[in-house]
Amino acid sequence: MLLPKFAPPRTFHAELKRRTTQYFQTTGKAQTGNGALLGKALLLVGSLIALYIHLVFFTPLAAWAVLECVLMGTVLALIGFNVMHDGAHGSFSRHAWLNRFAAFTLNVLGAAATCGTPSTTRYTTCTPTSMASTMTSTSGPGCA
Question: What does pTM read for this prediction?
Fold first, then answer.
């Protein structure tokens, strides 16, 4: 029986990375976020805080409360899909501490972030103590 012959291994991931790098080199754009991304993050977090304060401390009418809850859920999803996602991939900012802070917004949203740097990440639940050490160091020790 003859075995099939395939082209030399060139994975989709390797080709995608090559083309992405080529794009950023050609256009001269930075691979990390800029002022517009930071502004979007501040707008989303500010909106979340404003909606929460209004819902909790000013007790709007039921129809307004439902509308604000839907809007708050949308803002939470936008924070998760934009701020946390970019921070977890290290593309939110060129500063590592700001990327860790952006990734930490996952904990604010009610989920558990992973501990460690991208090369040493273990997908386990983190304790509050381990997350505090992750925010101040690059080693990320202490996962439970």
Answer: 0.65
pLDDT in tens, 52-108: 999 999 989 999 999 999 999 999 999 988 899 888 888 898 898 998 888 888 888
Q: Is the CB of residue 106 less than 8 Å from the CB of residue 88?
A: yes
CA-derived radius of gyration, the chain: 20
How far apart are alpha carbons 45 and 67 in whole angstroms?
A: 18
Kindly state the tokens that stand for 10: 């060139």
Cα 47 to chain centroid, rounded: 18
DSSP 32-95: S--HHHHHHHHHHHHHHHHHHHHHHHS---HHHHHHHHHHHHHHHHHIIIIIIHHHHTT-S-SS
Task: Tell me phi and psi for residue 85, to 5 degrees.
Answer: -60, -50
Nearest CA to 49 among 108, 91, 93? 108
- Domain ranges (residues) in the chain: 32-111, 112-144
User: How many residues in the chain?
Assistant: 144
Rounded to the nearest angstrom, the gap between the alpha carbon of residue 17 and the centroid of all alpha carbons in its chain is: 20
